[in-house]
Amino acid sequence: MTHGHSWQVAEATVARMQLAPVPLITFASTMRFQLDALLDPQGLDNLLEDLLSAQAEWRPGQESAGWHARGVKHNRQLDRGSPLHQRLAARVIATLEAHPLLQAAALPVRIHGLLFSRCGPGEGYGRHVDNAFMAGGRADVSFTLFLQDPSAYSGGGLMLESPAGEEEVRLAAGSAIVYPSTLLHRVAPVTGGERFVAVGWIQSRVRDADQRELLFDLDTARRQLFQREGKSEAFDLISRSYSNLLRRWGD
Ligand SMILES: [Fe+2]
Q1: Which end of the chain is more exposed for a tag (fewer CB within 10 A), N or C?
Q2: CB crowding 178-207: b at 16 or more within 10 Å, else e
Q3: What is the pLDDT of residue 76?
Q4: How far is the CA of 244 from the centre of ligand 1 (A)?
Q5: Residue 177 near residue 169 (C-beta atoms within 8 A)
Q6: pLDDT means per 10 residues in the chain (251 residues)?
Q7: 186 CA to centre of ligand 1 in angstroms
Q8: Would you say the pTM of this structure is higher than 0.70?
């Protein structure tokens, strides 16, 4: 993991620049952000090796889909009951939990439901919305961690819908996209090679995506202020608003 440093303004600014533009007619948040180099190349190699090893058991993805999504889900998932799954999932979750940008933007209570998915040619996942509640908690925020470089497969893009249209996400190995669970999305059919990802969900302190985005803006602004002028009067006021809104909206 390359994010040993504390969360810095530059990182927050980059994250804000990566957000899709939000149309002015609505404030239904489509805020998404990218976490790069979550796993280092060696760690990724080991993880893929484990996923491809003989001890890995793969099960049909339909088993964990909501009834409405079952007909459009075509993938295989690492057996969640296996020791291998538990070991790999714990590692990914610990890495995410330690990420300062994820903490600030998603305000996680718990990261849950992690699964490792593989899609070969002809497989994918049609348009759906993720279930609101799962065994591990409420799904407020969804993420996909890409385990292979985009050159290892063709097709297989994560397609996120927003009022502005559909956006294709295919990230470098070790990078993750984090987005509100409220969005319709799909995985385009794989046309060659094999696509390996880890996906999972976050129950946030703040269930509403618009409120989370407002809080993230305030948090980013106060960190920028602090960096520029220290603990000033303006910083204290923004901090007060941030904390009091989190108290009001958080659970
Ligand atoms: Fe999904």
Answers
A1: C
A2: bbbbbbebbbbbbeebbbbbbbbbbbbbbb
A3: 95
A4: 33
A5: yes
A6: 42 49 50 91 95 91 87 94 96 95 96 97 95 96 97 97 90 96 96 97 96 94 94 97 98 93
A7: 7
A8: yes
Q: CA–CA separation, 180 vs 218, rounded Å? A: 19
Give me ligand 1 centre to Cα 73, in Å.
Answer: 9
Q: Name the token pair of 107.
A: 């305000």
pLDDT, residue 28, reads: 63
Scanning the structure block, which residue is given the tokens 């094999």?
Answer: 194
For residue 246, give the 3-state DSSP assignment.
Answer: helix
Q: From CA 70, how far away is CA 63, in angstroms rounded? A: 8
69 alpha carbon – ligand 1 mean position (Å): 9
- In total, the chain counts a number of residues equal to 251
For 148-162, letters b (16+ CB in 10 Å) and e give beeebbbbbbbbbeb
Domain limits, the chain: 9-15+32-204, 210-249
Checking 134-138 for CB contacts under 8 A at 24+ apart, the result is 134/201, 136/110, 136/112, 136/201, 136/203, 137/109, 137/110, 137/112, 137/113, 137/201, 137/203, 138/203, 138/207
Domain 9-15+32-204 of CATH type 2.10.25.10: no
